[in-house]
Task: structure prediction
Amino acid sequence: MDIGNTLKRIREAKNFTQKEISEGILSLSFYNKIENGKNSLTVQLFFEILNRLNVDFDEFFFIHNNYTKNIYDNYWYKIYDFYYLSDSIGLEKLIESLALDYQNTKNITLNHLLHLAHIVNCRIKNILPDEKVIEEICTYLLSIESWTKYEIRLFISIMDVFDFELLLILSRKILSRLRNYSKNQEYAHFMNDALINLIIICLESGKINDSLYFLNLLKSQRLDGKHLYEKNIVNFLEGIYLLSLGDKKGEEKANKTIEIFEYLEMKDHAKKYKIFLDKMKNERVQN
Result:
């Protein structure tokens, strides 16, 4: 299906005439030819028409793909479906499929997904991933001057495999985008996830000062009532930070946030953070 046909589908579904969509943007005859696949669009005109239709870019292509995610998103979700099910066999079959698709296309995104699937499978098996895989993704991330949502998402998914110094270097890429991306709710969610993961890794590594730095950045984000999860996580991480300093109130604060997750029936989160709290308590006792 071509783009013109999708524009027509959306326009007709919203009961707009071609004149209502084209007026002030381009001639009616030119727009008619776009819908019929006889004319092409510049990027500027395309976005102006989407704006007139009250449809954003992502939604347009979601409709264009017959209300399905694109192939890359489908692979991404499948990887984590297998991960949450601890299904290493299913993931290995997916790796074979990805490897074949990459071999046929040499598409860099498929290669990254292949590497991600390998790393996630190693997590399930509790073994270290191939160093060449880590090096290849790291080289890519370092080569991109200004990260977009794709690089941020990739980084968040595999940040636990990098050594701490490299993690700090890569985290600067995110911090350089923090101010602009935090203005958009969807992108702010990715940024918050990145900061949460960075704080957890810092605490696990005993980098208390670094954890406080990232914690303060997370707290500086505009977390309103819609960000209940992030606000609760902030309180949990503050508790772990205090615990790391030897403050007994830290454990109490962390436990309170776990109770909130249980009350909200977010039992997987409650279990995950209870395990992390116990781990940090044990390390505190051993030290």
About this structure: Residues 4 and 34 are 5 Å apart (CA to CA). The chain has a mean pLDDT of 88. The longest helix spans residues 185-204. DSSP finds 16 helices and no strands in the chain.
